[in-house]
Amino acid sequence: MGDVRKAFVRNAKDKSQGTRFPLGSAFTCATCGFAHAFKTQRNMKIHLAVAIVAVILGAVLGIDALGWAAIAICIALVFAAECMNTALEAIVDLASPEYSELAKHAKDCAAGAVLVSAVGSVVVALFVYIPPLAAWAGL
User: Fold this and answer.
1) CA distance 36 to 2
2) Which SS3 state, helix, strand or coil, does residue 131 take?
3) Quick one: pLDDT band at residue 98, thresholds 50, 70, 90?
């Protein structure tokens, strides 16, 4: 995908003339960004595995539409947070190649945002999956 994206990169002249970035190009760049995060971030792979388990569990338990909406939002939120964390880490590394306490705080806060979204998703999952599990178990 990297070679495809290069065809869509605007140069300084395009930017100075206000040339709009084609919508299809924007989606291509976004897809490349997600693919980069998936290829380079171990935690993104973990999030994907958990998302797959969540979808399978939802299908097996026959959760309702509201439950599916909650699970889909949580999956998207965690993926988005991990992508933002990956982007922020790259920016911090670019701006501060040497160790910096401020850079450490920025990276830690971004990782904390991923943690908050993941823990929140687990809480939502408990609300979504426990009632059908209890019904299935006859409780």
Assistant:
1) 9
2) helix
3) very high
